[in-house]
Amino acid sequence: MDARTSAIIERAADKARRHIGNPARADALAVTLGRTTAPTPMMFVRYPPCLAMVLHGRKRTLDPDALETEWGPESFLITPVNLPVIARVIEVGEEGDFLSLNWRLDPAVVREVSGALPRDTRSAPPDRLGATTAEIADAVDRLLGLLDAPEDAPVLLPLITRELTLRLMRSDQAPRLHAAAQHAHADSVSAAIDHFTADLARSWTIDDVAALCHVSTATLTRRFRDITGLTPMRYLKRLRLGEARRVLLTEGRSASHAASAVGYLSAAHFSRDYRAAYQVPPSEDLRRMSRG
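That's the HTH araC/xylS-type domain-containing protein sequence above. Prediction below.
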């Protein structure tokens, strides 16, 4: 990341830091701010459709093949539909904290801006992370500037929303946003996610969910990859592991119960997947939480 972009992100981080204790004001801008002062273990988070950025510090995100990708302010993540993410904070910055921002995407604005731009002809899906540009950073900085001047938000927020959406459409993540803007495509992916979420324990196959969404298996797989970067079955695994960890750690249930509750037929298979995601077997994760 160049010096200009870095300086803009630092300004944005200062604004976020001042208002971290005022979530209502941030929410009025469709923004969620996060802060921690120490590294964290692997955590499951289900992101809504949003732009996710690190403003200060660094994190690692687990990719679909259980490989970790490290990133910070130089990168951003686009989630055009609800996306299950497994990640951990690995480094607090010089100010002694890790700061993150999630900005909820407005589907109507995404479609409006996408429709005003030339059709994106790139066939390959983009990398999981986008590269933060000075233009994106500047729009985010001005968005967070409205935290200091909420009286200006009714006039400026719609303008900044369209500008930031445009900057993202001009980025290397444009294919993912354009795919989401094709309403029918996003609808079939969202419908599949709703089916998965409503019945995690079902023995799903790709043919099952494609039939329920009234598309072919090849079409649904392609749309999932374009919009989420995951296949439908990889997405389902993420949902299952996140819910299993919640059941295990918040309800105090056994690993076998958690596995069964989300559709795993084999305890050994569940333990392998859980360890790959969270770096400890479920039994050790439960003991560690009990000691904490």
